[in-house]
Amino acid sequence: MTDMAQPIASPPSASSVMLAMANKVWMSAFPFVVVIALWQFASLFFPRFLFPSLVDVFWRCIDIFTTGSMFWDVMATVLRILAGLAGAFVIGGILGLIMVRSKAADKFLSPILTLFQGIPALSWVVFAIIWFHGIEFRIFFIMVMTTLPAFTFQVIGALRGMSKDLTEMVFSFRPTRLKLFRVMIAPAILPDILTAWKVNLGNAARVVVVAELVGATGGVGYQLLQQQQLFDMAGALAWTLQLVFFVLIVQGVLTLIENTAFRYRAVSERAI
Amino acid sequence: MTDTLVAEKAATAGGVIHLGDVTKVFGKEGVAGSYRAVDHLNLDVASGQMLALLGKTGCGKSTIFNMIAGLTEPTAGTVRVNGKNPFAEFDAFRGKIAIVFQGDRLLPWRTAIQNVQLGLEMLDRPPPDRKDTARKWLIKLGLGGHEDDYPHQLSGGMRQRVSIARAFATNADLLLCDEPFSALDESTAGKLRGEFVRLVKENGKTAVFITHSISEALEIGDRIVVLKRPAMIAYDVSFDKDTPLEERMMIRERIGEVLAA
């Protein structure tokens, strides 16, 4: 059998690349276009307080963005989410490390965290209102308590899932604890940490609204309560969209970090 | 049974590596599931020696290897490397022992040159210095131009070369190799073996090489220790490059007999 020269594929033309990109954008936008069209269609037949025109919602969104006091409400919610997630991540990371290193700590803390996981977010809101006075601390407490178990279990899973062979290899060079963390632990657990952030971000966005709804004097949750009392559906949608935009932006940043940090990964040509 | 066929036995008490009456039991002895991997083993390795530890799978080679590396503690007996306990004085061996593992064990998030720099980072060598050293070793092992490739972009043989470069880069006096070429095809393995022996001799290292291949042991070692389960020395022979072919054939036959017994 002789070797046959393989035909060399010519590079794709600029127009075909553009066409492929446009197709990709269209495929991603298509579900949203359908939802928007259905809503707008419904707004023609239903009263404004049930299905407001999305044009009105759009202008309300612009209004929130451009009015200082209202934009500050959005930022307050964003900061609360980020602070709560950061707090839960730091505490969860420390607890996870302790639980991986000590069987006794694991046996003691695991049931407590599982118990916490079973407590509804709304119960934590009630507990926080009864226990604490400061609004910001209340919300921080609620955010931490609702996302802490997930962060802890995800850190534990990541640490336990680290390759034993690679860890042993790094150990053979006798690293200090700090260097072991920098060269092995941090890069090995980063994929799971980013996934944990992505998952908890959605949860946190939902919980913060509940916390603000009953225990705050500002923020997206508080504003949603105002819209409900005014029966203003356009306002409720506009404020909800602020939170959706924020989640999308942070998810985008996390995806960007993933694409940069995990460029070392081999990609199979065959999809799962 | 211990033979001295060709040269005088290099086993000298107080060598670079000393294992005195070493026993290793995994689990609690006498309890179901416990396993005696090493049984009252005595072994000394002299400076500059290339010792091939030969034995069948499960004979305790890797346990001995891990004890010398300081990754496992013996249940009884003494393990000393340069007069120190490698398990208890773990950090004292930073930069003194380098290991080439069975698989390449490259960190997938690091490029080839970053992987080679790993041991140098542990020694706090300045970045430009460690980069130069890593590049030098990659070029020496025929990987010039692949410095910035990630492990998944390299072939199995190239990855194993990177792991050899990583071990040599630290300039450790003692090299421990755990069947580093067993996963490679024979042609690549043969080529790498030759390069490995040359580098060890050129750089005056002491090496312990674990293998289950008689041919590999004869090619690499200047002393071969054949182990029988549970890691007892069944045959111990030293030779050198001037050893005549007939004597090498005799050694090969003898090893075959010991392993088959």
What do these coordinates show?
The complex is a heterodimer of chains A (272) and B (261). Chain A contains 10 helices and no strands. Chain A has helices at residues 14-43, 54-66, 68-101, 103-118, 121-131, 135-160, 164-171, 177-215, 220-230, 233-261. The longest helix of chain A is centred in the last third of the chain and has 39 residues, at 177-215. Chain A is flat and about 70 Å long. Chain B is of the alpha/beta class. In chain B, the strands form 2 sheets. A 6-stranded mixed β-sheet of chain B has the order 5-6-7-3-8-9, with helices on both faces. In chain B, helix 4 packs across helix 5 (156-169) and helix 5 (156-169) runs parallel beside helix 6. The A-B interface holds A 165-166, 168-176, 179, 183-184, 187, 261-262, 264-266 and B 69, 71, 90-91, 93-95, 97-99, 101, 103, 105, 107-111, 118-119, 121-122, 150-153, 170.
Which keywords apply here?
heterodimer, A: 272 residues, mainly alpha, 10 helices, flat, disordered N terminus, B: alpha/beta, six-stranded mixed β-sheet, three-stranded antiparallel β-sheet, 8 helices, 9 strands, 23% strand, globular
